Please model this.
Amino acid sequence: MSEYNAPKNFNFWYFFGSLALLVLVIQIVTGIFLVMHYKPDAAKAFESVEYIMRDVPWGWLVRYMHSTGASAFFVVVYLHMYRGLIYGSYRAPRELVWIFGCAIFLVLMAEAFMGYLLPWGQMSYWGAQVIVNLFAAIPFVGPDLALLIRGDYVVSDATLNRFFSFHVIAVPLVLLGLVAAHILALHDVGSNNPDGVEIKGPNAPKDANGKPLDGIPFHPYYSVHDMFGVAVFLMVFSAIIFFAPELGGYFLEYNNFIPADPLKTPAHIAPVWYFTPFYSMLRAITSEMVYALIACVVLAAGYGVLKSRLAGLFKAVVVVAAVIAIVLMLSIDAKFWGVLVMGGAVIILFFLPWLDKSPVKSIRYRPGWHKWVYGVFVVNFIVLAYLGVQPPSPTGERVSQLGTLFYFGFFLLMPWWSRLGEFKPVPERITFAAH
Model:
């Protein structure tokens, strides 16, 4: 680490990468101790969690560290991804770093979903039932795929065993491999910085030894910097563990303290808070919303045909593709399009390096109104997360539909809006004030 030169103008946004690594370690260590006492059996799973909480010495602490750690992981990762978004850390030459990061996020969602079933509480059981049933909406292969995931016709002991083996062995191995690849890719191209100026490029200023003048050794400068972030994080983390481990029902739902009952459906089934923005998008896709999406397809195809300078054959292909898309959207159930939108909301992040056409990387040198666009995006994401926790309502449905359109509009229209406005000149060297 002492030989790795990082830009000297890192700010607090750069805490979250190392914090994500810290939470990963916490999850692995606490998970090992939980597995020592947990029983992946539908008849005994809930009792084994209660045994850990009540009879195992310090078992309650280990369990709460693991459950709070799951939410902390997503808080840290969301902030880490937002930092990449505002400072353009996904832009060349860091496309591979971003893709590995998005893959980590996707695998992390699978890991969290499978782990959520293991306590075998009411919300664990019914949440898994709802999410697995979504796969049945996929045309042709859906019912067989849902059966394969469950291992039975309903969520049962077979499902619990499958999810346990994946949560404890398979998915963590993939996650560790992706984290290693993410860090190796980062060290190959070097870290981005708030100015978006390359310190290792061929034109970057270097000393006689070839080391960048705008860089400083990661150790001891940023190891101390990160230790401060770790200290603050652990204070907040500990406060939640000891004083509010369920955090008002958001980190641990109250329904999950009731044993799973296949004969009693909870009044309102919702996933954990970190899935709720995407769950909101799923619920937003109704038959009415499909018609709105068809209108978007027609407008996009019409705009493409009118603005295109290519041959008539290309325009004909666009029109035919639009017609096929409309026919498919009308013939397939809205539930499937909801599943597609929910998955697409995550998959679209992988394409961000090629969607952003801005001449500068960092938000610092973009037009002022770009900051408002990013701000509205964050508020929209939080509103979608809140609506996903709430029971369905006509008003909530309309707001989530508008939020879904804005979410996808932000990315799909990025090649257009990211080029608009008056950009500030980017300095040749990074700006830094000692503090």
User: Anything to note?
Assistant: The mean pLDDT is 92. Residues 133 and 146 are 6 Å apart (CA to CA). Strands lie at 5-7, 215-217. The two ends are 22 Å apart (CA to CA).
